[in-house]
Amino acid sequence: MSDLLFYAPILTISFFVFLYSFWKNLKDDYIPSQIFSTAFFTIFLFALGLSLGSYFKIYPFWLSVLGLVIGYTIGTARKGIKFYDTFDSVVISSMTSAVFSIPLLIIFPNAGAVIFYTILLFSILVFFLIKKHYKGFIWYRSGRRGFAGLFTFGTFFLLRSIISLIDPGLTIDATIYDVFISGLISFVSLLNIFVLARR
Length: 199
Fold this sequence. Notes:
Structural class: mainly alpha
Number of strands: 0
Number of helices: 7
Radius of gyration: 17 Å
Distance between the termini: 53 Å
Shape: globular
Number of domains: 2
Helix content: over 70%
């Protein structure tokens, strides 16, 4: 009961932070029904993945990430939202809302959690730096949105892959293939930037 009382405010705050951030980033391009429907698909499948992973103790981090990506993909497809053009929004909204779960360090005060939040905060900083300057990159002639989100997503998993390589014990929910899975996600994310550059 005490754990529930501790988790509930954190999850509630994170939920509304995600909704607000997602809406704020997209309100000039899409109507509220498109924005919030996509957000709820994303949040629902993220929460489902996290719940199943936590209950069955089978890599809640990976199931929650998978749920988030699938939920976002379904939401954008159903509501006519462009996947890449709004990828920046889902990445920064997810990471920003995750920051509000830092109080969980009180319950889980371990090196892995500290490193996770350090990488998270660094990735958010990278996002805003890239978001501000990416249109000035000569080789990125298309100027399409999605660059900052893909670069940040790729950076996050690249750092996770490096930490897993150095010491898997310092990575949350590390699998024996974590170095390769995180590395592959990073590679695909960064590769997609070059795909966008050519469009």
